[in-house]
């Protein structure tokens, strides 16, 4: 059968076409609407791009602390080989270089310089996205035994410390010179710091858990404080970071200021100011590049200028017009010479008498009390105080809205300073010579000294004589096993045994002069020098001149006076410590030099390889203070005029210097006496020098004296990691 042909009705075709047309028109309207929304959103976010660099910069500082903590936890193999891997949200870290510093010898205590570029972003994923890059130089001293499960060959565990550490308030006055650059010239203070009434040079950074005051034309590269920072007079700083407030007085000229609190300029200038609190400029002539604050800006000083102000609060500006741009979340009051632009959702009060043209965008009212030319678009009322008819164009738009970004500043991280424990009693067993006053006599316990049997001896004298035809001589401060009964005077008696003089531990001003005296808990040394090694004294110790090649440890306080010098064993070197070589500056006659022949500390001297053992206690020149039944006593080190200390100084409580003093080595003043509130005072003509130190001396490595185990030889098992230099790229 033949099928009939099917015919489609034209009316049905028209229905499909109408439906398709409706769909196309609807799609076009949707696309148009989305485009408008996208354009508006892009415009709004585009406005943010001018301001997002500030939170991006704040993030770089938080990330710098993250990297510092990473380096504090990295093992030595990672630091030696690199590259380091650090990552996080909106953070990119590029390690440019890892190298040992020039003063390192590649052994325990080596410090590595790590240079990193840290990039952080703000408004990521939006048209307002921006990034800031901060270049940071870290100094990292690895915990030499971290993760190794062993101590050094001589049994004393070690910890790593920074170079100049004070755990109580610090006052620096007088002619203070610090040498060491970014590597070592860093002051770490658990307390307040005052640098004033002095000529102080060479300080790279101050890290303080308290307040910092710098004056007298002193320059410090970087200041970090958990409290307030005050810079006065002609003092200056390249970078100031404060968790509190910052006050700039006089002609101070800081470079970058960041504060969790407020910033006040009573003089001086700055490149940039970032503050969570208010920024106040009551002084005239102040010049600032940029101000960014979550608070208000109150600039009432005349003259001077700023390039950019960004604030969440109100802005009062009396400064000059440096093509100044103001963006504020509150009201803006213009005095002085005016500005180039103002953007605010609030009100504007223009009181500028004359000046360049100003462009104003305000969501609120405009009060014009000015003859300044310009234009304004406002959403509120226009108050024309002077009834001006020309020169300033005002456009009023009902419902006009001005949107400005909210400034969000990441708070600065606090300064944290790890504290090593100092306890002379913990090192008693490592001493070559232990000095104690027992039942009215001076006793010396000798350990690990070549050609002297280990044991306890008396300190005594023999009558002068000429033995075996030799020239006449005296015999003072010899070691005795027995004293003549009833011969003891001031702790020293006449030797009965051995019958023939054997070993002296003192080189007096002459062979007839002794070196030691003891009175009411105080040891006084006044000879030319003592036996070389580790000296341990129960009580206070006073040095009255002399040149010593020793580590001097006292359970009480240590005082130096006269022409005094001490070289720590690792500073002195093998020849002086182990081969009886007399260093330049120490004059001994032939008899005195022969008296010490063959006597050397076997726990320090590797005679087979003619070098010193790797031993942290040999880095210490002076150490004072100790615990008895949990109570700390002593710990003050007072360095008098004409004193030279080559090696680390470790005061369990405070350090005081005066006169002409030189310390070539690290300093730790641990403030372990809870009943003493006196600060550390560095005064007079004091030189603290960390340059050109001998390779055998490791200033950052000192003995561990508290909570020491073979598996954890460092404090908290961490490396020492510090920021020494920064700049924005």
For the biggest β-sheet, the strand order reads 7-57-54-51-45-52-55-58
Q: How many individual helices?
A: 7
Sum up the overall morphology in one term: elongated
Average of the residue pLDDT scores: 84
Backbone structural class = mainly beta
Based on CA atoms alone, the radius of gyration comes out at 36 Å
* Residue share in β-strands: 35-45%
Helix content: 10-25%
Uncertain runs are: 1-8, 42-53, 102-108, 144-155, 709-717
- Biggest β-sheet, characterized? 8 strands, parallel, barrel
| Terminus-to-terminus distance | 90 Å
Number of strands: 60
Structural write-up:
The chain has 729 residues and is mainly beta. Among the domains are: 53-158; 424-456 and 514-669, no CATH class. 12% of the residues lie in helices and 42% in strands. The protein contains seven helices and 60 strands. The strands form six sheets. An eight-stranded parallel beta barrel has the order 7-57-54-51-45-52-55-58. It has a five-stranded antiparallel β-sheet with strand order 1-2-3-4-60. Strands 5-59 form a two-stranded antiparallel sheet. β33 and β34 form a beta hairpin.
How is this structure best summarized?
The chain has 729 residues and is mostly beta strands. It is 12% helix and 42% strand.
